[in-house]
Amino acid sequence: MTGGAGFIGSHVTDALVKAGHRVLVVDDLSSGRRENVHAGAELHTLDICSPQAARLIETEGVEVLVHHAAQMDVRRSTEDPAFDAGINILGTLNLLGALANSEVSAERKQVIFASTGGAIYGEQETFPAEESHPARPLSPYGVSKLAGERYLFYFHSQYGLNVCCMRYANVYGERQNSHGEAGVVAIFLKKLLAGEVCRINGDGLQTRDYIHVSDVVRANLAAFGQSGFRTYNVGTGIETNVVELYGLLASAVGSELEATHGPGMPGEQRRSSIDSALLRRELEVPDPLTLAEGLALTSAWFRLNA
Ligand code: NAD
Asked: Per-residue pLDDT tens for 11-37?
């Protein structure tokens, strides 16, 4: 498990440990936190770009590489595309090369890759987007995730690695930070709980597909051990705009504060939602929580931990 000290990776680690797997966590703690790592997992504080991380994969008999470590800040990727590519492309290649070279037999090797449905499709032609929708990412982050998927296909065809590319929508939930694709949930919750006024960028009618982290965990568990090369959207198919999201968050924490509006973010994607019918049909993943259910869990956690 890479990125197992981060938001999503730590929840997936919890589930894998509970399921009885030996879990090695590789995380450099650049945005993750040591206290997020389940006591039953082994934390290796390493950069995914390092020879030590590659050696760990080669020598520890790793069968399933659940790859969540990434530079996942879209804004940072536009400011410094080379930094983003260094981690998301070269770091991924470092791990894939090590897995391909290890002694474990090819049919037992699998990569579950945390990709993005929120950023890979760009401005969508159809709503919600299916996996076959053209991928025209609008940010270097989306480009580097798409490159990761393409390299995975190469390693699948050349070395027989089994692969599941999991294209997450905007993931929110307990332990999330403000930098991810659903960072707005954490930003608004912290402000609302502190009694501060929230600022919505632009008209607030830009939409996203918000999925609770527990649904992402269920998708990872279902992907575990699947053969072949597969690509799944992991979302709800429902668009929610920022004004609606703010209203749900304010009612979840019992706040009557009104939000203000600031200038829009230049180049921000306008609408996004992804269709997960394939995931639910092929991997029998249950329907996701409603946004109100997920936000109730998330706000309860922020109330205790913010
Ligand atoms: P996160 O920042 O909480 O987790 C990323 C983890 O990777 C952190 O623990 C960080 O310390 C670690 N990391 C970063 N660079 C590293 C490096 N060079 N070497 C080792 N560890 C490193 O982010 P998250 O929201 O949990 O995202 C997890 C994955 O899911 C990422 O790959 C992200 O691109 C993807 N994803 C997230 C969302 C979302 O809405 N949060 C949506 C789509 C895809």
From this structure: 999 999 999 999 999 999 999 999 999
pLDDT of residue 306: 72
With a 6 Å cutoff on the Cβ, whether 54 touches ligand 1 is no
If one counts every other C-beta atom within 10 angstroms of the C-beta of residue 250, the result is 19
Closest CA to 304 of 178, 189, 188: 189
CA 237 to chain centre: 16
Residue linked to tokens 């979302």:
235
Q: What is the pTM of this model?
A: 0.98
Q: Ligand 1: which atom is nearest the Cα of residue 27?
A: 21
Q: Peptide bond before 128: cis, by omega within 30 degrees of 0?
A: yes
Rounded to 10 degrees, what is the CA torsion of 255, 258, 259, 260? -160
Residue 188 has φ and ψ, to the nearest 5°, of -65, -40
Question: Residue for token digits 């930098």?
Answer: 179
Nearest atom, ligand 1, residue 145 CA = 34
User: How many beta carbons lie within 10 A of that of residue 293, not counting itself?
Assistant: 12
Q: Which residue has the tokens 């197992």?
A: 4
For the chain, the residue count is 306
Q: Which residue has the tokens 């995730």?
A: 145
* 141 part of the active site: yes
Distance of CA 65 to the CA centre of its chain: 15
Query: What does the DSSP assignment read for 206-272?
Result: -EE-EEEHHHHHHHHHHHTT--SEEEEEES-S--EEHHHHHHHHHHHHT--PPPEEEPPPTT-----
* Protein residue closest via CA to atom 19 of ligand 1: 47
> How far is it, in rounded angstroms, from Cα 26 to Cα 86?
17
